[in-house]
Design brief:
This protein is mainly beta. The chain is 5% helix and 33% strand. The chain has a single domain, classed as glutathione-dependent formaldehyde- activating enzyme (gfa). Bound molecules: zinc ion (2 copies). The site of one zinc ion has 9 residues, from loops. The site of one zinc ion (ZN) has 6 residues, from helix 1. Keywords: Lyase, Metal-binding, Zinc.
Length: 140
């Protein structure tokens, strides 16, 4: 455990083979690495893409995640063409795996939040989560 959350540290050290998929199962995800960071995003693009009040994803180097099946994409956001589930996003050399696509809950805790100026008022505080009003400051 770290006693302070930063953008590039994960709260949990354990790694296990994790699987995920879209709702119909045609697109699959296999992960055997620890995420670089786990973030929530409240920006309007993420909200609209997911149809959800916020976006949650674990970020990896692209080659650290095995993706099976065929996706369609819109502005780097990849979804299953059959069932429409949004499974992951590609941003530069990174892949953002949506926490909701994982087969098991409670694998990782978010350690940062972006675009908090759009954050829902009813959403409670999340422990050890750094908040930014807009984008994450450039740091790797
Ligand atoms: Zn599907
Ligand atoms: Zn966003």
């Amino acid at each position: 455990m770290t006693d302070h959350a930063t953008a590039d540290h994960t709260d949990t050290a354990q790694t296990s083979d994790l699987t995920g998929s879209c709702l119909c199962g045609a697109v699959t995800i296999n992960i055997s690495e620890t995420p670089k960071r786990i973030g929530l995003c409240h920006c309007l693009d993420c909200r609209k893409h997911h149809g959800a009040a916020f976006y949650a994803a674990a970020v990896f180097e692209r080659e650290q995640v095995d993706v099976g099946g065929t996706t369609h994409s819109y502005q780097g956001r990849h979804f299953c063409p059959t069932c429409g589930s949004s499974v992951y996003a590609i941003s530069g050399a990174e892949i953002e795996v949506h926490l909701g696509a994982l087969d098991r809950a409670n694998q990782w805790r978010p350690n940062y939040e972006l675009w908090c100026k759009n954050r829902e008022d009813w959403l409670g505080d999340i422990a050890k989560c750094v908040r930014w009003q807009e984008n994450r400051p450039a740091q790797h």
